[in-house]
Structures are given as C-alpha cells and as structure tokens.
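ok trying again, last paste got cut off:
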Amino acid sequence: MAESVEVLITASVLPSYAHPGDAGADLHSSQALVLAPGQRALVGTGVSIALPDGYAAFVVPRSGLAVKHGITIVNAPGTVDAGYRGEIKVALLNTDLAEPHTIAVGDRIAQLIVVPVSRATFIPVDRLPGSQRGEGGFGSTGLTQHITGTDTSGDNQ
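nice, full thing came through this time. structure:
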C-alpha cells in the first residue's frame, strides 16, 4: 500500500477517492454554469489545501467527462505547489463542437493527485552525455517506424 500523507484542507465538499487504490480524489464544482461548445471557464472547487513540504498536487481531467462530454482541463495537469493556500480552481474546456455542457454545484469536475516531488539541482555543462534515444522527439518512437521501416529520425517535431 502506498504511503499516506496528511493534507490540511478547508472545503465546501471534501475531495474523495471513489475506490480503494484510486490515485485521484474527485474535486467538485462549487458553482453552476453552462459551458458552450468551445468555451472555457475557470471553475471553483471550494477547496484550499496546505501540502507538506516535499509534496505537490496535480489537477487532472476526469476520463468520463472527457469521453462522454468532451470536457477537459486546459492546462492539464494543473500544479498546486506546497506553498499555495488559495482556492483550487479548474480551467475547464468544452471540446464538443455542437453540445453545451451543464455543470451543477457538487458535480465532479476533476481529480486531485498528491505526489512527493524532488527538487533538482541544475548543473550547467557544455555537452550532455549520450543516450540510446538521443535527440529523438515527438513521434520518434512511433508505430510507423516499426511496421514500414520508415526512418523517423529526421525533423518530425
């Protein structure tokens, strides 16, 4: 079982895990609104947290909202730093081109994942060490290369 961490919280509705073993706790809307096709809105959750040092929380989309209604988060994942004490708000986007989506107070609109984080020490160098992947970027390990033998090591970014 994963380590548990205590998070201090003020909330109109507490985030909750739907099932044992879930990584994300559901965040609920604290306001009612209608998202028109293509519209985005910053939606309150009524939740403020105090994370311990060495932790961050990430606000991520709910897969059911994305698949069934085209509702996602514009800046997914949204990052909540340990020092932030304000309300967690979610930048929702309706990607459906035809249908508006109604959100009621209390609807589950996102998930909150709390994770330990490491702080990096950045060391400037003139050249990075090599790796098997090298500079291969977006699409450099795509299926096309495997099936057709197409060279994808060129500029595909």
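cool. The chain has a mean pLDDT of 90. The first strand starts at residue 8 and ends at 11.
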